[in-house]
Amino acid sequence: MTTGVRRRMGVEERRQQLIGVALELFSHRSPDEVSIDEIAAAAGISRPLVYHYFPGKQSLYEAALRRAADELAGRFLEPPHGPLGARLLRVMGRFFDFVDEHGPGFAALMRGGPAVGSSTTNAMIDEVRQAAYEQILAHLEIERPSARMELVVRSWVSLAESTALLWLDGRRVPRGELELQLVHDFAALTAVSAAYDAETADILVRMLADEPADGPFGDLVGRLVELAPRVPAQRLR
Amino acid sequence: MTTGVRRRMGVEERRQQLIGVALELFSHRSPDEVSIDEIAAAAGISRPLVYHYFPGKQSLYEAALRRAADELAGRFLEPPHGPLGARLLRVMGRFFDFVDEHGPGFAALMRGGPAVGSSTTNAMIDEVRQAAYEQILAHLEIERPSARMELVVRSWVSLAESTALLWLDGRRVPRGELELQLVHDFAALTAVSAAYDAETADILVRMLADEPADGPFGDLVGRLVELAPRVPAQRLR
Hints:
Two copies of one chain form a homodimer.
Chain A: H1 11-26, H2 36-43, H3 47-53, H4 57-75, H5 84-101, H6 103-111, H7 119-139, H8 147-168, H9 175-194, H10 198-209, H11 216-227
């Protein structure tokens, strides 16, 4: 038996505790499957008390998502020094850390659905996408992207999301491989656009200019050059 | 004044008419913004009669989505003849036709949200993705894809979705350019994976083997080779 008086938490402290408990539960099961009863039990308080701090599951869910979204956006921050490929690779490592830690919650969120597809949650997801987009532009030192370059960057952000989601479904490819692959995919999608657009070509050339031969971009080009002889020569014009 | 007796529609015929009317309205505005009253008015029947055929907006919405999903999956069908790049380009043309015709409905659906993110609609979207995935494997003559190749194809399908969605938001890049870009992106994402995986490398080589120099893949490689001299030589090892 304990004899001490249990310390009373302040309102904000209790809210933060409940958010933490919810995020921990969502990291193992989809939010749809986690009840307020479970959250109350894990936090060591009564169900009605949970409702005292959050009027409903949706509001607790949105508060948890708010914290997760801020944390994820924070992981995109990378000092603007050194080769771009290495920077992007570090960010991808932290992104997959996040996806790894929040697996089922991340998957449920990105797949939408009854409990999680509210306009509030969709707006928060868009905020994180926007943060990723702006970080990349900042690293590329692009102030006013052309419509084509904007599309390249935004579609790559979406590719990173879907690659992470596909990875979570079975984890059949080592995540380190996918982190590197996404860095390469960024260069590849930029190169495709650069082949047809002079402005993007300038960005690509600048992107590769500071890249060491043993960095992710140099390595990719080297390997593709090795593959080239296997394609009949006339295909390369 | 009309004197004739208006022909009575059968149940199934009336249902199909309402689905068609709904899809037409969803092609101009998001399903969230379209009321049953409007659908009734556009179909020339009373609101209660709509409910006679569909118990609620959600069921009409799902029936409309069913028809649209089947139609979209049908557009992926392409005879297995000729160079792969040209086949994929034709499919992309039909995909963008669909996106163009169903703009706001497509956008609302893919973005999820309160009215459209039900588990039924999500399952239908996954069916269409699966159909696209299977078509591509069939064209590549792959019966049992490796985990890496599966990821390349599925993530490209998702890239095609997000590229179409980004295009719909302002249509600032000509759609023909994006259709071609997506074909190139497929080759580029496959090449990235091929650089690190022997099985994917075999598929890439096979994919390019029948490709004419003036087809989309040959053209891309040619343009990239032209860009290469602008990157310092040591970057290419």
